[in-house]
Design goal:
4-stranded antiparallel β-sheet, alpha/beta, globular, 10 helices, 6-stranded mixed β-sheet, single chain
Length: 237
Amino acid sequence: MTAHVLSLVDVCAGHNHRAVVQGISLSVESGELVALSGANGVGKSTLLHCIAGRIPVLEGTILLDGKQLPRKLERRARSGIVLVPEERSVFRSLTVEENLRMSGRKPDTLLSIFPELGDHLRRPAGLLSGGQQQMLSLARALGCEPKFLLIDELSLGLAPLAVGRLLDGLKTTVMSRGTGVLLVEQHVRRALSVVDRGYVLGGGRIVMSGTANHLRDNMDEIEKNYLGPIERDGSGF
């Protein structure tokens, strides 16, 4: 990993011209999986939506492969940025196979990521379990072959076993394809077992960063000062 696929320089973003996150500078390299942590309401989702183009940049610069991103959402998507939002982004009335085809690739090529979906190709996505829906959402996003993937609360409301399967599948695919990933994940310790690095937000600013090992070594401080009650019990990141 030698190239920054995504770089943020002194980015401020928010709603109605009011900044929620301020002075954010971070980078993610090609093939790197990076976590973004912090208590609820500190601006994690705001930052992801800003990078995706859903929320305007108030100040600062966002670079993809060293080039400034266009402002419009659709142009950022064409540049290679894909957002997997907090809400499960499946077409509930379409079958699993039809959902996978929405990526523009043949379903068979995507089943290598989550083979479990192969038994449900003819089933409407709305009838899948929560974990299966997230597998489908993630497989479809990866099928778009993004340069950079933004993932917001992938494991929200899921059992630990499903969370582990999602994170492991994501890690394997990222390493093989060289996709950069910025991940907001609610299972702190599980996330730190698969990511390369992480950033911690507090009060809308980055208050700590480092390798996964460094953050694991400082979990007591992170939990005490920067995570809310839900996040501290291991179900939040």
